[in-house]
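Reminder to self: tokens first, then the designed residues, so the page reads top to bottom the way the pipeline ran.
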């Protein structure tokens, strides 16, 4: 059988190593995973109650239109119900956008080190990806604009950017959107939106009424702590949502996922607490990196990209041997590792193990 020619060399997405696999492979009893930007505090107690209540309905199909979840999210975000679409994680929404709007030969623009799913889905559709270098880890919006032409269909902006953790400010974003031609869709991926505490960060939802070509993506996988249930969403103008819905598979979110997401939305106190804990974790880790003489990007999500000063895959393996899972292998940052901000105890273990791996403990006691 012959596949599409454009997918012959398409890399398979590599998620963070599972804890169980590392324990089995290395014979370890204790492993901490700081690789996939999961919430170390789990999910709201209300989520667990909602899941329990749904267990008697496992034989029933989910609501294919996610009506109750749509109502809850529309109330929460202040948009109309016909402006919302749900997916099996926000990465499915990315795939649906590519399926709905990209043709072979079209162009789409993204940063040269960002969430890899943008490019992989464009590749599947036979579109050309224009990758624009980051500047100090931040999207170069002016340079991205300079690449727009008649063939450009989509510009992807990950904010905060994964893996660098940097943000585009509200002022920068609106100046950019003012200059993007109306035929070009701007997809603003805000998977880490709820973690950001910087006052310059944009409030993007009100921008949807001003820019009809804007799509905002968010997820329940990060701060809401239900990554295993795969619920993400997009918000845009009704006509855009209708077109994306036309290529969506039925029943793409589960009954349990929908119920859990509704419950998660209802507990904003949990979100607030996780945001505060995450900010404290960032402060601790950045202070420790400075103490160790390690450069790190400013962090606005729930992860930090830090320069280990040596090939990152070697550092990854050394940390793995000691039961700490991080992410490495970023093409534009070959000596950097990305570490999820964990609980305080997890952060302390990571720093201790990192010191050992990098040989920094001995270096500090030398006169």
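Designed residues (367 positions):
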């Amino acid at each position: 059988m012959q596949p599409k020619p454009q997918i012959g060399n398409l890399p398979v997405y590599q998620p963070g190593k599972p804890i169980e696999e590392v324990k089995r492979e290395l014979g370890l009893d204790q492993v901490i995973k700081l690789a996939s930007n999961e919430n170390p505090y789990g999910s709201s107690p209300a989520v667990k109650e909602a899941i329990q209540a749904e267990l008697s309905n496992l034989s029933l199909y989910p609501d294919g239109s996610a009506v109750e979840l749509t109502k809850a999210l529309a109330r929460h975000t202040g948009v109309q119900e016909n402006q919302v679409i749900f997916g099996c994680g926000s990465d499915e929404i990315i795939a649906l956008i590519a399926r709905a709007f990209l043709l072979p030969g079209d162009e789409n623009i993204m940063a040269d080190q960002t969430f890899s799913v943008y490019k992989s889905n464009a590749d599947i559709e036979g579109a050309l990806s224009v990758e624009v270098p980051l500047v100090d880890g931040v999207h170069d919006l002016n340079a991205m604009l300079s690449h727009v032409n008649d063939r450009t269909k989509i510009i992807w902006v990950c904010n905060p950017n994964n893996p660098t953790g940097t943000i585009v400010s509200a002022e920068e974003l609106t100046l950019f959107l003012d200059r993007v031609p109306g035929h070009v869709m701007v997809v603003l991926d805000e998977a880490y939106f709820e973690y950001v505490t910087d006052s310059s960060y944009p409030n993007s939802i009100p921008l949807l009424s001003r820019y009809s070509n804007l799509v905002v993506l968010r997820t329940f996988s990060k701060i809401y702590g239900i990554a295993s249930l795969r619920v993400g969403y997009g918000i845009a103008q009704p006509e855009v949502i209708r077109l994306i819905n036309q290529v969506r598979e039925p029943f793409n979110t589960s009954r349990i996922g929908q119920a859990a997401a509704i419950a998660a939305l209802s507990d904003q106190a949990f979100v607030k607490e996780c945001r505060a804990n995450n900010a404290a974790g960032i402060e601790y880790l950045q202070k420790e990196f400075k103490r160790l003489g390690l450069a790190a990007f400013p962090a606005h999500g729930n992860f930090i990209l830090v320069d280990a000063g040596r090939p990152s895959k070697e550092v990854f393996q050394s940390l793995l041997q000691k039961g700490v899972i991080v992410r490495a292998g970023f093409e534009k940052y070959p000596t950097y590792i990305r570490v999820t901000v964990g609980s305080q105890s997890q952060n302390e273990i990571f720093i201790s193990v990192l010191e050992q791996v990098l040989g920094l403990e001995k270096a500090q006691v030398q006169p």
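The domain at 5-42+269-365 is CATH 3.90.1150.10 (Aspartate Aminotransferase, domain 1).
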